[in-house]
Amino acid sequence: MKVDIQSVSQSRSVLTVVAEPADVAKVRAAVVKEFAANATLPGFRKGKAPAAVVERAHAARIAEAVEDRVVRTAFEKAVDEKELKVHDLVSVDGRTAGEDGSVSFTATVDLVPQFELPATDGIPVDDKTTAVSDEDVARQVESARRMFARNVELKPGDALEADDMAHVDYAATVGDKPLSEAVPDAAAYAERKGAWCTAGAEHFLVPGLPKELVGKTVGSSGLFEVEFPADFHKESLRGVKAVYAWTVADASRSVPAPLDANFFSKFGVEDEASLRERFRKGMEADAAANDRARHMQQVADWLAKSVAFEVPARAAERRAEALVQGLLEANMNRGVSKEDLSKEREKIVEAARARAEADLKTDFVLDAVGDKLGVNLTNEEFTGYLNNLVARRRMPRDEIKRFTSDRVAMREQFLHARREKVLLELLKTAKPTATVAAQ
After folding, report:
1. 224, 213 in Cβ contact below 8 A?
2. Cβ contact 96:348 at 8 Å
3. Low-confidence ranges of the chain (pLDDT < 50)
4. Which end of the chain is less enclosed by CB atoms within 10 A, N or C?
5. 348-373, pLDDT tens digit by residue?
6. Which of 379, 380, 366, 368 is nearest to 427 (CA)?
7. Residue 333: helix, strand or coil by DSSP?
8. Other beta carbons within 10 Å of 34
9. pTM of the predicted structure, to 2 decimals
10. For residue 83, what pLDDT is reported?
11. Residue 345 structural domain
């Protein structure tokens, strides 16, 4: 076998491979034997037809199978002989069968980057630790009370407070025209009956109206002037000045649960002091986990900035595509229109490419550090990692089964878990310092 390697870039090479006639003949004999063992031809029992007869009957299929196997085995042999660390097989082109029985082809491959690692002891991280204050615990208690709150219907004449939920009727005019006529594609903003609105909230179809309602009474009506911002997501409304006639049809208030025995029993404690202590311990554990995650990210960033190399282009393309899809879906879920997304697509793609390259670089560095330090992930550690992942994502049982049976996904998760373990190892020798900005 002959192999010639041409470097296209730091991370990409093209292999020109020629499989010798003798090697091709061996593959052909094996393929014909396999076909003969399973062939059913007229006049012969299954698997009993002579090889020559089988070869004539299935000439095209055998030729295709021989070429595929020759290319695959020759490529694998070439990679082994040249000791290449292939990250991706990008393409196989120019398959040619020679008159002498040889087979030649070119294979474009992306290689695992090669680089020198810096010293990994004493990597700087910030010296901040997150403390849990009495005020933090008090807010957590109030949050728990709201979680078990009950709704109370407000009566006509009751004043709205911040966070009260109200049904609001509204109709807008621009000058002497209804908004629906002045801006035909903005029907949802023109008139609504019984629109849910949280008094005092930042966001609503009508900008500023929720804050206007605080202090107003159930059953009351009024006028509210709005000038839609120049960057409003609905382009046709940008800069439009409208007057809204509104009425609070009805409203309800969420009344936090009282601090009584029934409430304490929901958390398995007997009194308020025990509840606060339980919340404090949980919050301190969360704070420590967040500090650790921040320090791990600082270590990863430091390592990535300490080396320079080109990431494999194919892998970067795949990851960028996934990021773009995720960003587009997230923005659509936030209500951003397809038209606005189309205008921002170029910026989204550019940002995704930069993020993909940065993330890949970090992955390669952490893998190399793990190899250098001999960091291995046990089956028990990986199982624990998967259990935590499934719990965080709240996966239903059928989704868990599909997820864990996907070999590619499991391989990616294994690598991710190992990288986390590498970062935890590096944190043991990291150097806390005030000069690193907390993120």
Report:
1. no
2. no
3. none
4. C
5. 899 999 999 999 999 999 999 999 99
6. 366
7. helix
8. 14
9. 0.72
10. 93
11. 271-433
